[in-house]
Amino acid sequence: MTRELNLDDIQGNVTRAYGRYSFPFARYFFFHFPSPEAGRRFLEGLRSKVTTAALWQGDEDKPKCTTNMALTFPGLLVLQLPVRTLQAMPAAFIEGMKARAFILGDRDQTKTEADALREDWDAHWDRIWRDSREPGSGGKDDVHCLVTLNAQSMGFEQAEKPNPALQQRCDWLCTLAKDCGVRQLGGIGRGKEADYQEASAVFDTFGGLTLPTAKEHFGFTDGIGDPVFEGQHGGKGKPTTVIGRGKLTDQGWEPLATGEFLLGHPDESQELPPSAQPPEFMRNGTFLAFRKLHENVGSFQAVVEEEAERYAQVMGVDKEEAVETLLAKMCGRWSDGVPLSKVSTYSDWVDFGKKMKFRGEGIDPLEGYMSNLKYIGSPEARDFRYGDDMTGAKCPGGAHMRRVNTRDYLDPLNKSGTDPKTGKPYENPKATSALNKRRRILRRGLPYGPPNFEHKSDDTEQGVIMLIMGASLERQFEFVQQQWIQYGLDFHQGNNTCPMLGNHDHSTRHTIPSDPESGRPPYVMSKLKTFVECRGGDYFFVPSMTAIRMMAMGIVDPT
Fold first, then answer.
1. CB of 312 closer than 8 Å to CB of 491
2. Are strands 145-151 and 65-71 parallel, antiparallel or unpaired?
3. Which of 292, 386, 415, 530 makes the best surface tag, with the fewest CB within 10 Å?
């Protein structure tokens, strides 16, 4: 039975990844409440503009600009929520992201905390995050509230320009803050600091038009397999929507339990997630990790270029094949989003691109762009397993995608090796994602930085703004970040970290197994650098509409 949710009570960015709903622009604002009264006035003024998860009836019903908000633990503290409510909040949320840096791999885990503090470990973070929650500061620069604005473009022929509604909402928001006595926090970025964090899809040109792509700045197609949970689409979702995005059971693909992502609803353990009192305050809310990830594009391109020279010689292939293959083996998908688990060799990928009209002789660039978008939005781009590739011959066990969403790979009945009766790798067609379904996360946010046709290096400002949502920061986001991205044991990778997101200060390898039938040897990338570094962030509570009203009125009562 499909769970029915009160979508009018849930914030819209929980159920929708706005970027996939034609909102390629975003701005993220951060505010400090100097007093409980100022904070409450601000929430009351903001409440009427918050975009809910209510279904849109069509394009005419879709807002030009959405508005959503979230609060840090210091923000709840300033709003004078009852002590009983605050004490029952999760430890990770109370401590905040900066205090969890060792767990997340944002600090050098081989050094003591005292050594890290002496070395000013967060010097590369944006000033807003260095100042927030700074010990001894008295909380004078703490981030209390996050407001996210997402906007549509001006239309297909002016897609690179945001709808004027975005600037109008920005002006309204800043005026509201000023009128309420709430301070907008700046200090965002390096060099020329900004008063808000800007983000947008990565744009490129196709047939004379500048259009948003599904890529990030390393060139990978991103955001294809975001989870689907019960009730998310209000009973309007297509049956195929869950394929590759839910949990894999012996009955096929099914939506994940609502309580994995929304508080107050049963989760995959058939229990209600831990929650503070009163129940109506936490119900239909969730937790969010705001994480700014800078991409060192110059280092990434240089390493891939050097490794490709060696790979081409070892494997006897040309440079273009070497580059594309290494990128795919690091990510788990080819650069256009086609999964290695379904199309595992370069020649097959080239043929697949021609067949699907992504590229090739006679294919108009705009036609290829549209064909590719249609494919990555289809079940075909998501419907695959890892249990039939335990050796990683198709998709390496340490590839980024296998780490962040293990699918059926961890099923305890899976076997590695070859079946002596058939001479083929062991198969477990009934493998499920039971050991993965408690670790899923909702990914929101957008890239930030210049479009594809502008120069990028380690020193230019580009990366991804990650808004990671789940009912448990520790069990979902922190577990994936620590155990699967920064460690490699679950994937038989030893201390090899994720080739894309991992910290490579001490481990610089990524192992690419070979298909025994190819006659080629395995290959080990050995010169990896830290390509992605955190530039700051914090943990937030995303309240329901009911909770926003309760806080604005000052009537949160745990009794």
1. no
2. antiparallel
3. 415
